[in-house]
Amino acid sequence: MSEAETRLDLAYAYAEMGQVPDAIAELEEALALGDADQRLSASLALGGLRDRLAGRRTVTMRRLLHRTGFVQAIEQLFAQTTDRLRHPADRPDIAAESLFSALPPGHEPADKLVLGLYDADALVGCVDLVRRWPEPHVATLNLLLVTAGRQRRGLGRAAYRQLEVVARGWGRASSLRTGVAEDDAIARAFLARLGFAETGERQRAQSGAETVTVVVLEKPIGE
Asked: How confident is the model at residue 95 (pLDDT cuts 50, 70, 90)?
């Protein structure tokens, strides 16, 4: 067993015993020592434990693999959320498949991370994150979705706090980049509250039969 694996096992044991500061310390060590999969495991646990220690709202984040059950679960999530961030397809089944399979040029499936957001074991949202895009030090957040029935409860903000830990640990990113439809005032205001600033870049994207203007935003997230 590697030192990173030992640190992770210790962290999980400390967390189960309620010794949160000790668990956090072990996870931080695992982040420095582990490979990409171990860093991801540490990051997913670390963000939630830091929020728990600070008495903040938490949400559980789990990796979703490109398998039929997960694709169908995301399809249902999209179908329930009519105000979701725009996708290149109108049909929830096509959009769900694209969530798992779409990659930027030169990237591999290992560079893409699809996370499910869980609240009391119910799937309430999802995340699409790509590391090292469009620059090696940047991670791109393609989607942060909370289903309509669970919005305005602090879940999106809690997920984002943990996502920064994932982007730094798993993605080795120092900046996080995202895009939002120019006419989506609510999403733009939410991202501004999280600390994102417009880069001045605009992109054109296809959303079903409609062409939309996407505003590109970025935020430094440290090393």
From this structure: confident
